[in-house]
Protein 1
Amino acid sequence: MKLRARLALTLGLATISLLVLLGWAQSRWHSRLRVDALAEAAVHRMDSGGRERCEAAPERWPGPQGDRRLHRYPGPSRHRFPRHRVFAYATDFQSPNPDNPAFPPELAQQLEAGKDVASHRSPDERRTQVAVRMPWDEGPCAVVLMRAKGPPPWFSGAVLMPAFLVALVVILVALFAAGPIVRRVRQLTESVRKIGSAAEEPIRVEGRDEIAELGTAFEQSRQTIHAQLASLREREAALRNYIANTTHDVMLPLSVLQGHLVALQQRIEGGEILDARAIVPSIEESQYLGSLLHNLNAAARLEANEGLAHEDAIDLNRLVERVIDRHRPIAKRKQIALELAVPERAIEFTGDLTLLEQALGNIVQNAVRYNRAEGHVAVLLDGSNDAWTLTVVDDGPGIAESDRDRVLEPSFRGTEARTRHPHGMGLGLHIASDVAERHGLRLALSDTEGGGLTVELRFAPRDT
Amino acid sequence: MSNRILLVEDDVALGQQVVDTLSQAGFDPHWVQDGDAARGLNPDDYRVVVLDLMLPGTYGMDLLKRYRVKSEVPVLILSARDDTADKIRGLKLGADDYVTKPFFPEELLARIQACLRRPNLVGTERLVVGTIQVDLERREVTTTDGTLSLTPVEFEILALLARRKGSAVTRDALVDAALDPAHDASRRTLDVHISRLRSKLGNDAAQLETVWGIGYRLSEGS
């Protein structure tokens, strides 16, 4: 059902119900007034000579009764009555007047129960009978019966018709008044329907009522949906870009690895007896490949600015040991001494375990990967939970001072960082730098005494 | 106790590789390929449990929880997922360590050996490192040449190195532990003490190694 019809019908039904209720209440009130007035009229009539006349000739009193209207009486029941009849009875409810009707038993019952005034309405509600016990208890006129028509029953046309007329007017007014509201709702519906289509426009509803508020809410939702869609599209583009970059980055070491393996195969086919060291480049490349994937994963997380997803207490001694164990096989094959020193009491630090391990792994990997055969790499963890320093010292080629700031820039957007530092060295240090910054750590590069690079990762809250 | 190691790993190629590595290293690996089969085993029958997380049947983490209810056996998680939440959850549930795939066989062995070493890290009153014995209570050092006559500083240096046998100890840590700050507590003084200590150790001096970039280490020797 449409809004306008529903509104009109609801108002109409509510009006009818209200008016019928009022009609019923009014009818009850009139009925009560009629009883009071009839009782008063009976007493007044007997007091004003009626008793004497009745007792003088009870078999004839009150004589022929035509139309008789009661005039206004003083007292609370100022009411004009239609036709009524009066009959007198003795206290035993018998009448010497043979024309009088038999005393209604329901009224007799009420009077016998001790009431002075008894009333009754006929089942069809068209006639009211009132019996009044007079102040005297003897004689043939001690009880007076009054009979009158009306009042009209509450469900009669007289009561209901005005109600229906009023309801009709209300319905018409509602239909007319709802017009502008319905028009605005339709406009709003049209605007909402256009969301997502080419004809989309901002939702505007004039006014300050609930419909305008609804329009504002729709507009806010529309803007939120737009922002979310834009963010999704951006993420999708970033994901596509990430996959493309990853594929490119992975293909490079994979090609190198394949090249190594093919060369080995050719040398074996050529009858050459290979030294175990011949396979080191392949192993190194495969390790680099794994590390690269972890780095790309970390870069994607950092680039998406996810922040530190996990803030857990990390045993740094164990973390450093794990990183060293991870790089020891390659170091051993390259005859590089990879040494480690951790304090006796384990240092605890709160941060992202994976990112920290990745960052330190990158620093150690660079120190091992770019070092010469029979070189040295030493990793020292020193300090306590409150302040600690992790130092990675190597005697490799080092990084020129002019390049140091650049390799530590915490940025790896697009392929710039990768192409700038072939073979991922830059990416690894960028990640280390970014992770350090997010953990409130200071990452510094310096020369090793006698040549090489020293990378220091320092946690000293009082410095910051 | 035997050298049995329980390996729960569903990947056949990787599982076989790990089994070969462990066998070559002198361990007795027992390889189970799904979580449900591993549920019925008693972890206390093994020295170390190497547990993959993504398993058919019972998930690795549930298995770890189950094992931890009844056993303190060292558990090493083998995870293909570079996911911090998983690692942290594993460590919180009582795993001793984890190794992320891909890994070198030596890396896994090193972590297993670290797991086995851990309970013995706390020093006793008598430390034995190769042929060198350090009696902390009597403050005596015995080598193949008999009991040595050491100065208090030399004894402190050797005691600290022996307590952390096999691990490199920084020069600063040795200076802090053995030298008197009121006197000449410098790295150079330390090197002099080490030099004297080496000469006193005689044939066993090779066990006292210089570690590049760090300091010194007392190793078991060859």
Protein 2
Amino acid sequence: MDNLAEIISQNETRLRSEWIRTMSSAVERADLISKAELDEQCASILQAIAEGVKAGGAGSISGAGWTTARELLSSISASRARQGFSPSDVATFVLSLKQPLFIVIRENLGREQDRLFETIWSATKLLDSLALFTTDAYIATREELIVRQQQELLELSTPVVKLWDGILALPIIGTLDSARTQVVMESLLQTVVATNSKFAIIDITGVPTVDTLVAQHLLKTITAARLMGAECIISGVRPQIAQTIVHLGINLEDVVTKAKLADAFALALQRSGRAVVRTTAGPTSALAGLLKKQED
Amino acid sequence: MERIPVLRMGSLLLITIQVDMHDKLALQLQDDVTERISEWGSTGVLIDISSLEIVDSFIGRMLANIAAMSRVLGAETVVVGMQPAVAITLVELGMSLPGVRTALSVEAGMELLYGALKTGTENERLEA
């Protein structure tokens, strides 16, 4: 085992240059990372590996002696996950150290076959586990990213907006599943209470498909709002969705549905005893007036 | 014994539930409401549940029952001020209270009841 550590620290400079050469022939990502940065990373990892082999042995990388190497690798793979490297790029980063390392080991122990084999075996085991560790760290970072994006999406996609005094609109974007319906329902009902709104327009223009489950979720929300004394109107029903609803036999007869948000808003205004009136003459009537003047 | 007060306001009954409902209280209220409607000849019942934070299926059914009984006795029922959590619970329990009218506030409920009474009397007048 000591051999491996010795070999690595003795040949560090050569290993590093060979490593970078092998790596760049396998994956060329000069667009994502600069040569100087790569050189620096390689140097610090080689140092950490040499230290790890010396302190913790090459058998397992979970020991305390490998802490530096592990931290270094996980921070590098995390930054690469964010930079847009593919998983195989990240794994190849460590695995491409194999060839230069084996060459160096052979040069050092070429005459002693047994020791040569033993050292190569422990080196390959070590590099494999380091590569696996790197991939794991890469995937963990990706997972974190996905979870965070999901949460952000959930928060972003359920705004309740006030259109008028007593009229709310809830534009739903994306598929409605149980978790989202819960969020949508709660935020709608809270806002109904807070703004004392009699009408709520649920706009489903951004909902890609409406199946029986989505319809059930919608009906639940509407029933809850009705129990509180607010009336719901569904708007943004696309022709395709109207067809699907009828084909699936979903009963939306107790619910007012409109094709456009504007139609639903007009209905809500009308039901609350309001009307929108034009205060200035429109362009056509203005033109007519002008023509009349000229005739005179 | 603890009781939920039933107040008379002209031709309406006003009930404000301000304590946690338990089954006995609910049954007592059911008795009181039907009793008062027939005694005073009320034509509308307004139940304010804005302070009610916990419901179960029994309380939900009691609300539906009171509405149905009042209708039999010739009075409209409006439930007002239901909390979001209560509404969600009732929907999850599968109780949509189909025969019950609802309103956001006592004020809106009153308006609804007076509106219903007015059209009712107009219809009667037209029929007469």
Protein 3
Amino acid sequence: MTQAYVALEGGHVIEGRGRAPGTARGELVFTTAYTGYEESLTDPSYEEQILTFSYPLIGNYGVREERFEDDRVHPRAALAKEFTADVAEWLESEGVPAVDHLDTREIVTDIRDEGAMKCGIAVGEDVTEEDALEQLEACKGMSEHTDIGAQVSVDEETVYGADNDGADVALVDCGAKGSIVDSLVARDATVHVLPYDAAADDVAAIDPDILFISNGPGDPANYEQAIGLVQEFVEDTPVAGICLGQQIVAEALGGSTEKMTFGHRGVNQPVLDLESGQVVMTTQNHGYTVAEPGDHLEVTQINVNDDTPEGLDGVVHDVITRQYHPEANPGPEDTLDFFDDVLAMADERASTAVPADD
Amino acid sequence: MSTDQQSTGETGDGRTILLIGSGPIQIGQAAEFDYSGAQACRALQEEGARVVLVNSNPATIMTDPEMADEVYIEPITTEAIAEIIRKERPDGVIAGLGGQTGLNVTAELAEEGVLEQYGVEIMGTPLDTIYATEDRDLFRQRMEKIGQPVPASTTISLEEDESVSELTEDDLEERVQAAVDEVGGLPVIARTTYTLGGSGSGVVHEFDELLARVRKGLRLSRNSEVLITESISGWVEYEYEVMRDADDSCIIICNMENIDPMGIHTGESTVVTPSQIVPDEGHQEMRTAALDVIRELGIQGGCNIQFAWRDDGTPGGEYRVVEVNPRVSRSSALASKATGYPIARVTAKVALGKRLHEIENEITGETTAAFEPAIDYVVTKVPRWPKDKFEDVDFELTTAMKSTGEAMAIGRTFEESMLKALRSSEYEPSVDWADVSDDELEETYLERPSPDRPYALFEAFERGYTVDEVVELTGIFEWYTERFKRIAESTRAAQEGDFTEAAIAGHTNATIAATAGADVDAVEQEVPGRTYKQVDTCAGEFEAETPYYYSSRKNEFESGPLVGDAASGELEVDRDLESVIVVGGGPIRIGQGVEFDYCSVHAVQALRDMGIDAHVVNNNPETVSTDYDTSDGLFFEPITAEEVADVAEATGADGVMVQFGGQTSVNIGEPLQDEIDRRGLKCEVMGTSVEAMDLAEDRDRFNALMDDLGIAQPEGGAAHSKEEAMQLAHEIGYPVLVRPSYVLGGRAMEVVYDDEELERYIEEAVRVSPDKPILVDDFLADAIELDVDAVSDGEDVLIGGVMEHVETAGVHSGDSACMIPPRSLDDETLARVREVTEDIAEALETVGLLNVQLAVRDGEVYVLEANPRSSRTVPFISKATDVPIAKIAAKVMAGNTLEELEIEEQIPEQTSIKEVVLPFDRLPGSDPRLGPEMKSTGEVMGSADSFGKAYDKAQDATGKPIPDSGTAIIDLSADKFPDPDTEDGDALVDGFTEYFDLCEEVDLAQAVREGKVDLIVSRDRDLLEVAVEEEITYFSTPASAKAALEALEAKDEPIDVQAVSDRPKQTAEWGRSD
């Protein structure tokens, strides 16, 4: 008989049904999306985290690779009220422990009240509560994962849409979702995916029309190289960022970031555009946020629920960033035009560029 | 930073808004519009608007005097509403809250120029949008314009100078063939535009059938049009509930997935929220399409968009936009209850110009209306069909609605949710599976969708069918079929002694104990207990304050019942506070309509007035009682003794009221008392004792009691066998009234005139309830029937009102029009009526409501029935007299005395008529004659100085107005009518010939079909079935025909439109002529 235990920060252990064996530890978070489990489980931003699905039934429409955001599962473990066999088998084949028959609503409200917390998991034939507690003991805080970028980034430059005629985008991969690349390529851009720790020379070699900082896991303060790139290029090159990318841009340009109690994870986060007065629904997955934008950035969009910054514009520089995920997958497609706005900055740059022979 | 931007739009300050309700409960338009209307009234008043409300249905909460600034209970006709507009001079009208009825009448008012003449603005969704969604051709054009795929379709229509009766068969054939070719061949869906709940539409496989339908459709359609569409049967049907504000912020409140494949009306389908089997990409494609559609149509407020979807191998699948309802609907009520997002409330505020992020989300108190609810449970809706009432009607589920109501349930798994929903629907398939062969199971119960199909799935798995086989037979998607199988397997495991799986699947301990032949205590110890979770719109992300809960079993790692705080789960209750549970009425069905929701809501309001916490247990998503801000605790649960006792355990309630929810709540009185005793809960069943309720229903004991009190009853008794029944009938003398005991709404009640009829009846009645006796009573032909509703506190009795039926004995009291005050009683008789009521109240030790049905013949008052509980006439009486007897009853049950409450009886100075609405047009093959079996779905009220005018207004309100001229058929051939040669018969014929030419055609039915007849008086079933089809006003009893004559005579009297509280009343006691 497979045993399964989930140990929560503070030492409380919950029994569940084991669906994929193994031990794991990570920061316990939840998403409220009821579709898109394949996309969520392959989202690199969940690295070093244990993902709880607040929706009870996960796996209802099977598992298809074409819906993945990356080539592997990123959360360290997954929790639900009920996983289908399809999902359980997939997670097992990926070596990611899974537990179900849990009261996930109780877990979610615990996280809401106590904040994202450390968690240890043990699933297997003979595991005990102690095994889960041992994992908990060894669990580090998110900010302590200082080299988390290395776990989720490409090792070397990879080019997508090489034959496209549009802008050249240097995408610094801090754990980018595949849909960001797809959204840019679909708009005729050539996307140069660079490692999270790319050097300024690597970027300069591309001479990009846009420097784009991707989403990714963990604390933005741990991405020093990317922060440096933004500072280096912002004078001459339009800069864009999504999620962690927005936080990195803010850190780079004199703003500050902070850890949230339990973050925003779901597909129903309302964002108000301060200029148009329109509210759109967005996909979000972040545990850190921009605290102060600093003098070089202004807030253009805010979260309707807690007023946190959702969109930043450069005051003098060509910079636009989003805290949410305009590329959707999972979630609403209300904000796909962000990519048009990003690429418009490249066009503008091209049209105003001073001729080289001067 | 702040989201507190000033609204650019106007708010409601000082503006007068006219709100139009949806009229009587009928198939396709049930209590959902009472809920949405009531919510809208509150929302508009919050914004400072003055609300004028009109609805013809007195059984609603929205027509309570305190719901709006002025409440009119008047016919929803342009004549009456134009009069209200003249009096009230509203600035705007919101049309999208009163269903199809409200939309249609608003469109007519605009077309007639009334709105323009009085400067009344149509608020929210514009009229053009309404036309664009209702005219399918226009709709298709708009969808094509924005690149949205719609099913191929075309219309068959008549030119202005053409009439359908002149159309030759060849001509028709040609047009139909061309249409079929255009949409890609048979099968097709044929539909008439502008009808309610898809009446007259369906998937057609045969060309001849299509011809007949088109001919009929062309005749009935308001714009002589029949739509032919590509059949996409077999695809998955989705609905998206969308909301948009004036700044173009758009959100999806939720989507809903129909378990039954496309081809079955969504009102007839089992529906699940959120979707289970569509991947994110497909869901987002439809979501985006829904937003594009609502923007293109310029809708402001709530809207419902239907899609068909299938997995075609692409990541997101393929979809079609099927239909748009630019208004709140049955589905939006369901979506509101399923998510906690108050669609009608937000729609009303958006219509006033508020933006979504400026409207507070009352559930969380932290967030705004600008968000999409996140759900962390599974919601299932199951329709409720009147199958038991209409033996002649085929209840195969099609694109036309036949269900009268629905039940909703919430669970953590589909299995739990589905079993709770089935339990809540209180439906029992009338089939003994042991008698059903595999072939019959497949053909009649699995392939053919019917109300019995969910049960047939369980039976199939019990017989060892595989999931693939069942998918093949039913077309129900594999994911769902698998879960039906799990339920069946859990039931099997329970039979073999393993109870846990069955409990987690959603069975009650009582069911498991019965299935396994085990003791309920043993089951309870072994399985995980139930605890409560909150419906919070946000899947736990924010702390919510609203007390809206559902139960779920714990996981298998725990067992044994939960008591005290452990049972409460997420409930925030102060167990020391005095609290009472009001048990609601469940799904709307014939015999148990919205009136019991009205009573339940009044009980809640009364308790809250007294400072007592009131909790509601109910499962009908259409109603006001299941609005999250009606009570102090809303428990969306099946109504069983076990589940109500669980709520008592969790809340620490001191009492339970079972008088208000109709038969549903009354029926759990006794088992609930037992369950409370078994668990040793400190909780009482309040008011009249369960024992007294039982006494009132036990014929023999009740007879003896009446004899003791010296109250006359029709001679009769209970018979336990055919021989006994015959003997009784002979003693009494034919005709006799026969009925099974313990049934709802007069089911299977009949008047029999000889031995042969009695024998035939007994075979049926015994089948209806085998272990209960049948009652045989003297049939008091031509007696005047009365209904009395009263409240007693155990000492004093307050008479709410005395109503006289228009129909004589032989027509079920629930189907008879009735009037208040009565007009045929002298003072002495009325005094006796009072005395009888008081004596019965005292004898039954009534605390709370009492309904007494009486018959008066030759000055003698007979009691037919007494029920110490709420009755369906309570709201009508309360509206007519302005004495809220349900509230008073709740207060005396909670300890007040009538003396303390200082309420005086009121007698209206005008006449108010309650008239019923009948569902025959929705149920082809049903017998359209009034009789002892109740068949009506709803009611309307008409008030005026004279009986005739009040009756005329009531007929107008039913949508079957009495024409004032034309051609009539006066067919007095039936036994029940007076002979044409007699004085009475003569009077009837002469009366009608004053207004009508008599139809001279030989083939009367054909004349009706050809549109040559305007009014029919007859009891010829075949002729009346044609009248129903052709929507011709008819009267099937002498009493109603006579009343119609009086109405004709009163046609010229002023329409007398008045706010209901302005109608004159006299403070006086019924039956006491001081």
Protein 4
Amino acid sequence: MSGSPSSIPVGSAAGAPSDGVAEPQPLVRVEELKVYFPITEGIIFERHIGDVQAVDGITFSLRRGETLGLVGESGCGKSTTGRAVVRLYKPTAGRIVFDGQDMATLQGEKLRRMRRRMQMIFQDPYASLNPRMTVGAIIREPLDVHGIGSGSERRERVGELLSTVGLNPEYGARYPHEFSGGQRQRIGVARALAVNPDLIVADEPISALDVSIQAQIINLLEQLQGQFGLTYLFIAHDLSVVRHISDRIAVMYLGRIVELASSRELNARPLHPYAVALLSAVPIPDPAIEATRRRIILTGDVPSPAAPPSGCRFHTRCWLRERLGNPERCSEEDPAMRELAPGHEVACHFAEQVDGSVEQRQAVGVRGGSTDAPAAQPATAPVAGG
Amino acid sequence: MSLLQVDDLVVRFRTHEGAVYAVNGVSFELEAGETLGLVGESGCGKSVTSLAIMRLLPKPAGRVEGGRVVFDGTELLSLKEEEMRDLRGKDIAMIFQDPMTSLNPVLTVEEQMVETVRAHRKVEREAARQRAVELLAMVGIPHPEDRLRSFPHQFSGGMRQRVMIAMALALQPKLLIADEPTTALDVTIQAQVLELLRDLTTTSGTAAILITHDLGVVAGMTQRINVMYAGYIVEAATTAELFAHPSHPYTVGLLHSIPRLDAAGEALIPIEGRPPDQREAPVGCPFAPRCAWRVEACWRENPSLVAITTAGTAGARVQHRIACHNAPTAEEAVAGHPLRSDFHAAPPPGSVVDELTTSEPLVDGEAVFPQDAPVTFDRQEGPSTPLYGAAGLPLPPEEDERR
């Protein structure tokens, strides 16, 4: 859960994002977004022979002041989604409505002006800072680009931003290599904050950092959200981190969102077989719990997004489909997102079968689902030490 | 007798910028069939320890400067290179984090596996190939006969790691060292590989050392854990005991700085500061600058690893050792910070201002010190007053903690 005071009540009967009637206008509304990357053949005459369907028709919205977590494995399209939202990629189809304006078709000066309101934090704090610029110049660059303030105002702002992210304001004269990974990530955060954005897309912002440093950055992001009323799109592969920081979570698999729910709801009651498997695969640092958990081991690897499976994209690895005797519907009919509980959407034909299953209970762990008592705790002996 | 005994191992790297104190006297034992976790962050010496055991330290920079490694009755550090080569793969095998860099990209998996087997066993090519097929099947690679002819790049990350495991287990080693075997993998693939490793080590009775930064991974995989920091083992206990009664401030800090999937919205308590620069000879406890529990002795004297008694070890034979002068109490370990209200982490020695004189009067509230005057100061909570040095730049907060 985010520490933001402005967070929207999660899991409440706020209504489906799709009805859009009762709800205040979201900051960002992504509709049927598709991002394809062409595969070509030939050197002189490039022929278009196919597409990597990195993102293939996803719909979600970002409410003001909330953190939406985007989680999934490598190649699921989560980073592509984040980059398309800030228009680092041009969408192949679909709409990205940012505060009433469709970003997908904006160009030139108009796009540049909108970009001021959205910023990005990248995974690798070593690669995302220009080694030949001073930290001050790096943080100041967005101000220069957007022509904000006079020279002295910009200088002042750099010092102010550095203290905001917990660095010495005098560090502006130094170069990135003089900083540790955690400090560099703080510089990346300061750069993102420079233009006072509404939205920050954070793409795996802590995966490259040491464990003891990760919490520093997570806490900083939470603190800044409260301070500046930021909206976050938080992209990560680590469910425990995403759960910690997000108000709502979207689980992606092979270019699609397969489940979208409040953070608490998703962790207590995952309804998509993939989300259940993903949760069950996350190790919990507690040997007593680990001894009683049974993992769902998915067979095989994620299929290629250039040739995704027919029907449900997860059907080739789905444990539930196997359990149900491989119904044809899974391989033939593409499941649409259905709202099974208020604000809890799932794209699975048989999601009802997941609810209450042993697998679901096992995946959330013994202490999971803090509200409902874990009565069905398996009677496995606790781990015997040594 | 233990299968592996490491005594007071010291490893240093010689670099242009001086020695790097990578491993500073590490001792542990491993029983046959046991899985031991070495946990710590980058630079803590966990990988260097394993490379030293395998005698694979990068030469000429890396050097074992002291200690003994006794494996199955043999002192490894004094073996001739040929004898060691014979032992590697056959008795001790290793799996690395990135299988792409440990497999040869220009040879098929078949060539590499057959070579491994035939380097140690006098068998026909065909027999070795049969063994390779068996091994690939054992680690769950579909169509092993066909896949044998593939090159490493034709496998996915998870499959490549399976190939590595198959090769490591080809000669039924007594000890398997797995260095971050799943760090490069996605979480569902990590689950597959860990499950495989657990099954294989259990059924074959292979002892294993699992090196990782992920406390979640060791929780479900190991029987005992050594937590390392800056080249020292700072806490050693059985897995159940370590998680039930974490007792070293660093372990406590680690457990509080990772979000847990099964804990709802608890605030994270980060470990302040950053890992130490190991180019400096360690003085005092290496964790002291980041530790909330530090007392004065921590700055002077590095605590040794001694047995302690917790609720879990009282009256039992469970071993639990920590290296700490002022260990958190059980309640403090749960809270993640010191609970005694009158307790303050000891400031670095020599940092208390007892006499401060300047030759110049204060100018606009700033004192100007002569260049060679001995200046000591106290750092307190709250906004910091910049101190200007000869270079004209204020010292960054972490650098004023001069010892």
